[in-house]
Design brief:
heterodimer; A: 414 residues; alpha+beta; five-stranded mixed β-sheet; five-stranded antiparallel β-sheet; 9 helices; 30% strand; globular; B: 188 residues; mainly alpha; two-stranded antiparallel sheet; 7 helices; 2 strands
């Protein structure tokens, strides 16, 4: 190193120290009212390549459904999203709920080796690579998915437990109708069977009307590739249908002439046509995420009540909020433009006076379907009023949160 | 002349049809018959996808132990960690639904039982059973539940013909159309 370079280096070091001193001075004004940062996040190659959230954020998913995920063998069963800390309508991919048929390994799939086959009652049987699927015209849409087991129980204490088996993401892929038109659906092709590649090869039967309407073969989720827990490299989105229809690790679509009664389909089996109808397309539903169970209002005063609404029937048209246990209702504000079969954020300005009260929300969708109270469900099915309500089919009943005078929030389901 | 004109129109019409049905993007390839056969594992109620092979109750009883089914489902088809495989002991019932949520008695089709064992069992060793073994295990489970006699041999012809007790005793899923409420009048 020449002496000139050495001098320059010394100068730079002093300059840095000076700048640092100035910086410190700037961060600590005489008034001392600006908080100091806790330190600095040292840049690493990993953080440059793929960022991560602040260490002060700890919102996280939890095992759901009375069975631990992962189990002793590394299988995942049901994992619920932390709706209590959600903002906006998109669930981050890392926090998106997970459901599997019976507990499942997450397949580790090299997309270069993955194929999708379309066959059955079609003019042309076709096999696609993932790369080929990405060459088709694409769509990007916001859609929720909800597990049929997303059911509030009196033993649940948080909204994560009562409602965490739903999430909403921005999905990108090819419309299934595009590929079915490419293959040419033959007369008599009334259903499709969609099947995954995981060890149980989960398969569901879906009506051709739905397949041709708005189903998406997704390779993208929230701006990047679909996550392995969500079906990497390819998952079927069946907007508004119960979660199990949204086949992950998708490898096969067979166009068929009849309902196949796969094991997944058998899971829906019932004797009652009304119950069958209620366990298919998801109903209008909403839940207040703040304030919600186990949270606490620190003092009387102003709060924004906030929550999520959705429906398998289309767009959310209206959300109402009651602060008196369902006696009176006020329209909530809809934040953003509602999308079909997508979580919609609603809110209402509210001043809590410090008295015990009960919050509820009620969703109406664009078809005019209205979210029922549990009492209305019981009345519809002629259930005895002194018994706990049993909601048949998918549960979209109104969730009540009781706020005690000390500001604590509790699940008010009896 | 008039005939010529007509046939010309006809040709034109046929041509338009053919064009409407041709692929737009020309991506993907045609699978071989072997590829389709290897993946075509979803079994319809009429059983047309069932492979050749056969099985008996006696063989199924042995396989139930050899293939470790009993570890999770119990030696008698109940009382262990996995879903029970033998109907509840409720005696004679008017409605077979009362036997409980037990696949080899509740399912309207024996094909569902075959399909699920073939694709999803045994846990951790899925896809290792031969068609003969699946036919045998299904035979044993149906015998346990008094659906078939002990001497019945199951194969691709006999299995779909089994009259399960709930064959016509379940609700069909509704016809689905876009923009349709899930259940008219519920609950308002």
């Amino acid at each position: 190193m020449s002496s000139k370079q050495s001098d320059r280096r010394e100068f730079l070091k002093r300059g840095a120290a000076l700048a640092g001193g100035l910086g410190l001075a700037a961060a600590k004004p005489a008034s001392g009212q600006l908080p100091d940062p806790e330190g600095m996040i040292v840049g690493t190659d990993d953080l440059v390549a793929y960022g991560k959230r602040s260490r002060f954020e700890d919102s996280k998913r939890i095992p759901h459904g009375g069975r631990h995920s992962p189990d002793a063998f590394g299988l995942d069963f049901h994992i619920a999203a932390p709706l209590q800390e959600s903002v906006g309508v998109i669930t981050p991919s890392s926090l998106h709920y997970v459901g599997t048929t019976r507990g499942s390994y997450v397949p580790d799939i090299d997309p270069a080796n993955h194929r999708l086959m379309i066959h059955g009652l079609v003019d042309r049987e076709l096999v696609f690579t993932v790369e080929e699927l990405r060459r088709f015209p694409s769509v990007t849409r916001l859609h929720f998915i909800e597990c049929a087991g997303n059911r509030s129980r009196s033993s649940h204490t948080t909204v994560q437990e009562t409602h965490g088996m739903t999430s909403c993401a921005e999905w990108t892929g090819v419309l299934l109708s595009t590929l079915l038109e490419e293959a040419g659906v033959q007369d008599g092709g009334e259903w499709i069977v969609a099947e995954g590649v995981e060890e149980v090869k989960g398969a569901s039967t879906i009506p051709i009307n739905k397949a041709m309407d708005d189903c998406i073969l997704c390779y993208g989720m929230n701006g990047e590739a679909v996550r392995p827990q969500q079906g990497y490299p390819l998952r079927l989105l069946v907007p508004g249908f119960e979660g199990i229809f949204n086949v992950k690790w998708l490898r096969r679509i067979k166009v068929v002439d009849q309902y196949y009664m796969t094991y997944n389909d058998y899971g829906h089996l019932t004797q009652d046509p009304a119950t069958a109808a209620l366990g298919y397309q998801i109903g209008p539903k909403s839940v207040i995420t703040f304030p919600s169970g186990s949270q606490r209002l620190p003092e009387p005063g102003f709060y924004e009540i906030s929550g999520l609404a959705w429906s398998g029937g289309g767009k959310v048209a209206r959300v109402e909020i009651s602060t008196d246990g369902g006696r009176t209702w006020q329209d909530a504000d809809i934040r953003g433009e509602p999308q079909p079969m997508a979580h919609t954020r609603f809110s209402m300005n509210w001043t809590w006076g410090g008295n015990a009260c009960e919050l509820q929300s009620r969703c109406t969708d664009e078809l005019g379907q209205i979210q029922p109270s549990r009492a209305q469900v019981a009345a519809f099915w002629n259930q005895p009023p002194d018994q706990p309500v049993r909601v048949k089919g998918q549960d979209n009943s109104i969730q009540p949160w009781r706020i005690d005078a000390d500001g604590s929030v509790h699940n008010a389901i009896a | 002349m008039r005939l010529l004109k007509l046939s010309g129109l006809l040709l034109l019409a046929v041509g338009v049809c053919a064009q409407a049905q041709s692929p737009t993007y020309g991506l993907g390839r045609t699978p071989t018959a072997e590829e389709v056969a290897a993946w075509d594992i979803a079994i319809s109620p009429d059983g047309k996808e069932l492979p050749a092979g056969s099985g008996t109750v006696a063989e199924g009883e042995e396989l139930y132990v050899l293939k470790t089914c009993f570890v999770c489902h119990g030696l008698n088809g109940s009382g262990a960690t996995a879903p029970r495989l033998i109907k509840r002991d409720v005696g004679e019932v008017d409605d077979p639904w009362d036997y409980g949520r037990v696949l080899p008695i509740r399912s309207p089709y024996a094909t569902t039982v075959w399909d699920y064992i073939n694709r999803g069992m045994p846990l951790g060793m899925e896809g290792t059973l031969t068609p003969d073994e699946v036919y045998s295990i299904v035979a044993y489970l149906l015998f346990l539940n008094d659906v078939i006699e002990e001497d019945v041999v199951l194969d691709q012809d006999s299995l779909p013909k089994i009259e399960m007790p709930n064959r016509n005793n379940f609700a069909r899923v509704p016809d689905w159309f876009p923009g349709q409420p899930r259940l008219e009048g519920y609950p308002y």
